[in-house]
Design brief:
264 residues, alpha/beta, 15% strand, six-stranded mixed sheet, single chain, 2 domains, binds zinc ion
Amino acid sequence: MKSDLNSSKRKFIFFLAPAIFLFMVLTSATPPQAYQIRTIVIDAGHGGKDSGAKGSRSLEKNLALEVALKLGKEIERQLPGVRVLYTRRTDEFIDLYKRIRMANAAKADIFISIHCNSAPGRSARGTETIVSGSHRLGEQAAAIRENASLLLEENYKENYQGFDPKDPESYIIFSLMKNQYREKSVKLANLMQQEYVKSGRVSRGILEQGLAVLAEAGMPAVLTEIGFMNNREEEAFMISDKGQQEIVQNLVDAVSAFKKSVER
Ligand SMILES: [Zn+2]
């Protein structure tokens, strides 16, 4: 009995203990895989029969597509190893829920939707970035405008669980949807707004609204409004190559800073 105990103690000291030690060293040296930005989905707002906001010389759907394609190209050029996918590359209408489902299916790490703003009157100006989340009924201007695309979709009531973009109560559906990526979405939105400001643009800040295009996102997701279509000066800026380049670089810099901060 006594020698049995000694032999099992010896076994532990000579075999099991080093094995446990080795296991602990190995597991601590390889922590769980950190969050990496490998795939980015870029979504040009509206398209096809849905023109979005109308400026005096241009349509939102066209400006959004031009900026989205340039952004994707620059991300791939400036951030090697990152793959970019687009929800649309041409002037076509795509249901909002399909856009985010494309990103979910591609296991995208970031979803960026590009839009242009509009407001009554011509004095409104500046940029804003929207994340999906809790929101108050009084702050739904962008949500009502951007969600209005739903009305052009067939069977939208089935696809959005009875969601009616014209009914304020419907927004509760989206506010109740869990948004586990809220914190990272806000971080990315903040970085985008900071970059716009560095270039001298007006920042209208970050909004949390019930946006159909972001509601089901399984990744940090933002919708950025790059300027006002109804403001002649901003429309000219968004049409110009120089303006588009500046906006694109702002967004690349924001994505790059976000990537560095989350991958650290
Ligand atoms: Zn829009």
